[in-house]
Amino acid sequence: MVLDPSLPPEVALDEGDPSRLRLLGNWVLAHAAAIAETLRGAPEGVSAVDARGIERLDSAGVLQLLRFARRRGLPLEAFAFRDEHRALVAAIEDVADERPPRKREYGVAAALARLGYAVHDNAREIAALVAFLGENLVKAARLFAEPRRFRLTSTVFHMEQVGLDAVPLVALLSFLVGAVIAFLGANILRDFGAEIYVVELVSIAFLREFGVLLTAIILAGRTASAFTAQIGAMKSREEVDAIRTLGLDPIDLLVLPRVIALLVMLPLLAFIAMIFGLLGGLTVGAFSLEIPPQAYLARMDATMEVRHFLVGISKAPLFAVVIALIGCLEGLQVEGTAQSVGERTTSSVVQTISLVIVIDALMALWFMRMDW
Predict the structure, then answer these.
(1) What fold, for 10-95?
(2) Cα(220)–Cα(242) distance, rounded to whole angstroms?
(3) Which H helix or E strand runs over 288?
(4) Where are the domains of the chain?
(5) What does the pLDDT look like over 95-117, one tens digit per residue?
(6) pLDDT score at 2
(7) Residue 211 CB neighbour total at 10 angstroms
(8) Where are the beta strands (DSSP E) in the chain?
(9) pLDDT by residue (tens digit) across 129-152?
(10) Three-state DSSP class for 108?
(11) Which of 40, 41, 37 is CA-nearest to residue 8?
């Protein structure tokens, strides 16, 4: 049988079934305009399409048919193709993209719509984080019944990565921030002749807030992004699927060692940040405010209370859980492309920093109300 390439595309209703549309002719790029016009004139109420009458079919024709199916709400199973056309249709259907989105709309309605979508996405992220927290709590409790699941080597490795390697950065930044707070406080208190109160300002600020908060923000940018990138790269290379195929649990293997490592190391790093923040204030007092180190330390010993340290260090485990869970969850949500890894890494940093600051503000208000 010789195919006639000049035959235009045609549609006709099946005589035995008016809800069935029959396609005839050549559905190729050369007849693209005719295909679009023909499909626009197709009758309403069609529930099935018989495409076995198509003599020649290429990717342009398949795309037009897929768009027609989306407009009419027809599933791909409603189309009957020739055997030689099915592979092409399946391949095009797998990679077919929607038409480019319309330009951004402006106005009150569009702004409200975008706000609604943002709220919905944030609510979904919060629900996913809460569910992920519950799953990790269950898996962590299981470790007590099945200690063999605990990955000691992996945990120690991550303790070194998130803790020991971060000590120089945390110490340097804490020292500089402590010095800056002392400078700013001195400039204000000098007008009242109360420069000596810089000791209380730096001590209380770092013990209660800045030590643990600065450490958490550093780890949110340094560690959460690393967790997301590491797990996201494994997800894109299908290593996480391979772990499941081997009968292993990705939570036990990838998430819990990171959570435990951060739970152990963040309080230690926060303590180091407090020490170096106090040293920064001491340095400024000795070299700029003419407060001898002995007098500075004596004043600090007389005015500092243990409760300030306990309030600050009590926030560290909560911040550690938030940073580790968000970093790992965003990594597990990577969709397999390099772009997705970058987007999820950015999202993890933004979410962890934002949530750490919000939690710190709420806890500060609560401790203040409790007069602690």
Answers:
(1) Transcription Regulator spoIIAA (3.30.750)
(2) 29
(3) none
(4) 10-95, 146-369
(5) 665 555 566 667 788 788 888 88
(6) 42
(7) 30
(8) 10-13, 20-27, 48-50, 54-57, 79-80
(9) 899 999 999 999 998 888 888 889
(10) helix
(11) 37
